[in-house]
Each structure stands twice: as structure tokens, then as C-alpha cells.
Amino acid sequence: MLLELEGKDLWDIVSEDELRPTEDDSDEVWEWEKRASKCITKLVHHVQDLELAHIWKFADPPKPWLAWKKLQRSMMVKAGLLASN
């Protein structure tokens, strides 16, 4: 999934290296939000239905970095690397 996000020039948003521009009415904000929504779409298409519940709340407004962190945690719990809360 990481490679696909990198290949689509979306990983910088998920990794929080590229933050949302501060100008609310600019073209840059619109473009960033469009790319952030694409990140969520890519994440949703790669998860099972049970994991979808963990990330759906991060879709509007798009917060793909939070969805990614939630998915990572969920996978680590499944693998027994973290205790579930």
C-alpha cells in the first residue's frame, strides 16, 4: 500500500510531510484536499470490511494520516505485537 501511495504522489500527505495549506480559499487547499481524499480512497480499497470501521471516520474531512496510523495499530494488534485497549 505504501508503494502505491508513493507511486501516486500521495504518501507525503499520509506521512504528514505535506501539511494542508493554511489559505482556506486557495487553489492549493482545493488540490491538497482532493489528494487527501484520494489517499482515503486508496486506503479503503485495501482493507477488509472489519478494518473499514476503524478508518471511515477519517474520510470527511479527509485525514489520511490518522487513518494510516489507525490501520497500523490494528494490524499490530492482530499480529500480537500490541495489546488491544
In brief:
Helix content is 60%, strand content 0%.
Describe this protein's structure.
This protein has 85 residues and is an all-alpha fold. It has one domain. 60% of the residues lie in helices and 0% in strands. It has five helices and no strands. The protein has helices at 2-7, 11-14, 27-45, 49-55, 64-78. The radius of gyration is 14 Å and the shape is elongated. 18% of the residues are buried. The model has no long low-confidence stretch (mean pLDDT 88).
For the secondary structure, the number of strands is: 0
**Mean pLDDT figure:** 88
How much of the residues is beta strand, in percent? Answer: under 5%
Which overall shape is indicated by the principal axes computed on the Cα atoms?
Answer: elongated
Tell me the domain tally.
Answer: 1
Radius of gyration: 14 Å
Helix fraction bin = 55-70%
Q: Topology as H/E string?
A: HHHHH
CA-CA gap between termini: 26 Å
Number of helices: 5
The structure class reads mainly alpha
Poorly predicted regions are none
Q: What does the largest sheet look like?
A: none
Topology readout:
Blueprint: H1 2-7, H2 11-14, H3 27-45, H4 49-55, H5 64-78
Q: What keywords describe this structure?
A:
single chain, 85 residues
